[in-house]
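can u pls check wat happens w/ cytidine-5'-diphosphate
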Amino acid sequence: MASTVIAIDGPAASGKSTAARNLAVRLGIPYINTGSLYRAIAWKAGQRGISTRDEAALQAMLADTSIRYAVPADGGNPDIEIDGVFPGQALRAPEIAQGASNVAAIPFVRAFTLQIQRDAAKNSLVVMEGRDIGTAVFPDAKYKFFLTASPEVRAKRRLLQDGGVPDPAEIAKIAVEIAARDKTDSTRADSPLKPAPDAVYLDNSLLDRQQTLNYMLERILK
Ligand code: CDP
């Protein structure tokens, strides 16, 4: 039987978190953001003064790290709990993004996160969002989407999401950061960012949130 996962993959700021969240609400099922896993590892490394490129130190750190998805006390979607704490919004700090991408390229990190992601989808149908859900984590997912948008649209969305003013210089700066991360993510040897051959590919540059949601729902509920 195909696994009970709706996989949504795509590059940074492609609108996949919003689409995944909206889809989960509409279907009444949990939403799981897998980028938080890599962000949590980068966050803990930062707290310990460990470089996200120091593989030996990261390996020792992971040997002493427990991570799982758990529903926070105030309810809502399963969120990352690392060593008994929920870092929550701290994981969204812009400086964590490239560190997350660095640790995500390391095979022993991906081996560590694989089972956590599979466990998170054990009990119910879930919407799971990331880079390799349809290719590596759940290659047998029942529904797979690959969401993307033009670099300018993505940079503008990220700026607005972080509360910034969308002036051209700021957009250009974020576009450079996003392009660097796209490069790390799509050129790594282990589980690179790429559409699964059987994924529905959607460039949503010209679509708003509702249109993106409708497009996906049409393919799931048909
Ligand atoms: O929100 P945004 O798209 O900026 O990033 P994210 O989804 O929070 O992911 C942060 C980083 O984690 C990405 O740049 C990837 O390097 C990594 N990641 C991954 O390798 N595999 C996943 N399934 C999810 C995220």
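Residues 12-13, 17, 34-35, 38-39, 97, 100-101, 104, 130-133, 181, 185 surround cytidine-5'-diphosphate (CB under 6 Å).
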